[in-house]
């Protein structure tokens, strides 16, 4: 039996009682409702190491209290989810140990994992905590990061699903997931393909590149994007597709395109990424700058 055959069509959301987690719960509940699938709340607890010396066994009362506190967090999370989707089927999983280990195990068996992120941390340029960073980099299913400032608003509630398309294998997988999301949400899909001047060969050293040359390149990129999307456009006739070719860097173009979007979908690394790379520079930068929840899709 393959891994895909053992997957359960369910959304897992990590809960820890923080405002960022609450935002992720709302987004996950709304997504589960639109897909018509259950939601599973995932929480973990660990014994504070500083309380007991190595080799000492803490009393059972400490474990009982940690479990009670964790279940209170889960119950509160369930209430938040039911406010968004009153008829949603909701389960939960609670484990002792690292939340990273728990979520990575669950990533083998679910449709997607949703995580909250506080956004920029105390260190310059730091966007993800250790949990979300590890899960995004290693999960075996798509991972959605919902930052604390990614609230659902009237402006983005019915916005498009935006996907970056560059022709790489992982980008193709991300595009497939984006079409599936747009179809489930009844949303428009905006496919963005970018190119920059350094990739283009002009007529030769010392020559100015004419506007006709740029127009020809633009047309070539448009035809490439049409070709990359053709099969999925046919497979999802209910999804309205818009295409955008941008002569710009991917991070800037996708950040701009994702304004008022429901979701931004990217591959974990693009054409410039090294084989085996866990998370490329574009994905890392977008996790910091994206104005909406962002889904990272990793290769099989």
From TrEMBL:
GO MF terms held by the record: ATP binding
Entries under Pfam families matching the protein: Usp
Signal sequence segment: none
Keyword Hydrolase appears in the UniProt entry: no
Protein name: Universal stress protein
Native source organism of the sequence: Corynebacterium lujinxingii
Domain UspA positions: 10-147, 158-298
Coiled-coil ranges per UniProt: none
Family to which this protein belongs: Belongs to the universal stress protein A family.
SUPFAM superfamilies assigned: Adenine nucleotide alpha hydrolases-like (SSF52402)
Keywords associated with the record: ATP-binding, Nucleotide-binding
